[in-house]
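Minutes, project check-in
Item: structure for the 127-residue chain
Input as provided by the requester:
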Amino acid sequence: MRHAGSRKQATCTPNTVLHCLYGFYNLGYSRKELARVYHKSETTIGNWLRVYEATATFERARKASDKKFSSDHRAWLCDFYGKHPLAYLDDAQEAFVQAHHITFAMSSVWRIIHEYGLTWKALERHQ
């Protein structure tokens, strides 16, 4: 079995954890072998196994995010794209800042319109 990754990375991707679980349950590797392969402590491997056994899945704990945008703000962005379906993200961001005096990342525009099911293809159809 080859070494996967390096110890410099503090966290592993869920995919790595799932590969580790597969190695333990399906291939019969020991915790010690998996710890060496994935450059993690045996305790970390044990924690992954414990979480999997308790929940039958593996997902990283998510931080509760402080929602900066109210439902009105989100609706405003969707209305904006209803009126201007081909607007660029920076155009929507600029219009929102002028209307609400709240600054935010352009990626938030993308995330919000996707939460409402709006994709570029869907927006182009509204043109």
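Outcome recorded: The first helix runs from residue 14 to 25.
No further action items on this chain.
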